[in-house]
Amino acid sequence: MTGAASLGPEGAVAPRRSNRAVRRFWSAVGVFAAALCSGIAASTLIVIIGYVITQGIAAINLPFFLEVPRPVGMTGGGVANGIVGSAIMVAIAALLATPVGVLTGIYLALFGRGAAAEGIRFLADVLSGVPSIAIGLFAYTVFVAPFKHFSALSASIAFAILMLPIIIRTAEEALRSLPSTIREGALALGMSLYSATVKVILPAARPAIVTGLLLAVARVTGETAPLLFTAFGSQFWELNPTNPMAELSLQVFTYAISPYDDWHRQAWAGALVLISVVFLINVFTRVALRTPTGR
Amino acid sequence: MAVRADLVEAPKTVLVMEELTAYYGKRMAIEGVNLAFPSKAITALIGPSGCGKTTLLRCLNRIHEAAGNGRVSGRVLLDGRDIYASEVNPVAVRRRIGMVFQRANPFPTMSIGEDVVSGLRYAGGVRSKARLREAAERVLRLAFLWDEVKDKLNHPGTSLSGGQQQRLCIARALATDPEVLLMDEATSALDPIATAQIEELMISLSGHYTIVAVSHNMQQAARVSTHTAFMLAGAERIGRLIEFGETNQVFTRPRERQTEDYITGRFG
Does residue B68 lie in a domain region? Predict the structure, then answer.
């Protein structure tokens, strides 16, 4: 910017030595600033993960994964019910959100034209920006209050709503990024639009669609806000999704604001488990779902 | 100017275009083309870039309208029936008129053996494993590809070389037993050896199929085709048919001045 502005008409034709030195100086400053910011961004993540590991590792042991919480004052106990609860809620949410999201993505990428498609795309974008606590409140109003009963199912519905825009956009992008010759090749063989979509186009886009699904799962796995008024949490083994259920991030929240040191340690350990799960999902999507041709 | 349908030898399958005009949205791309494609022969469509020859080809199997805003008026008669008639399903049309594209497009998740019969299976509804395998061998032999791939039918189609991929796509198009084969600059992405193989294949197929081939390469058109259609777009960028005749006549004694100018390299 500075270098370009200092160039007069003559300077542009035959840059003088001093000009070049100035440009080199600012170029070096720019590169340094960019490198510094990248370093800050990366080190923040490393510091957070490192801190969670040092704080949480002490409380990680087998009972932590196998036992349910013990009453305050008794040492030991674990978050097994929360881990299982998280898995149940996220699994139900994925089952709810996947068909709706993928079909919407197919519609937007292959069929949708004009105002209707633009409207759906816009709504999906807006939905992805809605704070998760607002979605939690919505789930409370519609699926908890009428039944006068907290439930894991209502949390799953809130999760599903959070996952939808991610699944829709990644599915649409996955399908759009396929060359149009694939679709035309299938149609030119006399396949119906349905056969071409199901037998040729969707399989080709599958890895990218699954990546989107897993990223959506990773996104909601750490969510706490929508659970406050839906799943509510539980100190006991609870596997029935129509009842209140424990959830790992909710347990972390509850333990962290408690006054007990023992629970604080467990909160750190729970946070470590959450980060590890999200980390593993991201690593898996990068390594296992990489297409043979590369991307 | 155009070959009259009733004069074509052995007119088992006759493909005739009448007053065909094609649009992209509101923009006219080709206007008022009348053309009768000779049966069991190769017709080359030549002309400079942007003259509408690919659009014309894509109107013949109704794929023009499958991509967004394509629209057509006029008629295309296959055995005397208009493929644009309201009761005709474009999917059924495409089973009788196969197409090969400029770039080979093997389906990314299919093996060679699956890909080559994908049309037969998913468009033709053939389920029998034995029939599919039989068909795969038959068309891969037709495409001079069998010996090269018979031991790796379960390899992905995308693992083949460019020329092999294109022959796979030709074999795939033949598997549904079409009567007409459309080829859109099928060799333009290939090296000379692969090009020669495809040309040889086209000539060997021309006794059985009506082939319409777009080519930007005049030497190729002169080598492989029996008839040639020359198209040209004026300043308003609307393509029109300038001349159609036997290839020999078009290249040696063109009737139109514009054809002569193009063929002798004065433009294009």
Answer: yes
- Considering the domain boundaries, does residue B268 fall inside one? no
SS (H, E, C) B118-173: HHHHHCCCCCCHHHHHHHHHHHHHHCCCHHHHCCCCCCEHHHCCHHHHHHHHHHHH
**Residue B105 with chain A: CB contacts under 8 Å:** 179, 181-182, 184-185
ipTM of the complex: 0.90
pLDDT of chain B, 268 residues: tens digit per residue = 444 444 444 445 589 999 999 999 999 999 999 999 999 999 999 999 889 999 999 999 999 998 778 999 999 999 989 999 999 999 999 999 999 999 999 999 999 999 999 999 999 889 999 999 999 999 999 999 999 999 999 999 999 999 999 999 999 999 999 999 999 999 988 889 989 999 999 999 998 999 999 998 889 999 999 999 999 998 889 999 999 999 999 999 999 999 999 988 877 5
User: Is B103 near chain A, with CB under 8 Å?
Assistant: yes
Question: Angle of helix A202-221 relative to helix A80-106, nearest 10 degrees?
Answer: 140
CA A244 to chain B, closest CA, distance in angstroms equals 44
A75 touches B at CB < 8 Å: no
> Cβ A181–B105 below 8 Å, yes or no?
yes
By the CB < 8 Å criterion, does B146 face chain A?
A: no
Tell me the shortest Cα–Cα distance from B170 to chain A, in angstroms. Answer: 11
**CATH, residue B159:** 3.40.50.300
- Compare CB distances from B63 to A178, A187, A192 and report the shortest one's residue: A187
Supply the CATH number for residue A200's domain: 1.10.3720.10
Whether A293 is in a domain gets the answer no
In whole angstroms, what is the distance from residue A239 CA to residue A84 CA?
A: 8
Question: Is residue A14 domain-shared with residue A89, that is, in the same domain?
Answer: no
Domain that holds residue A41: 2-59
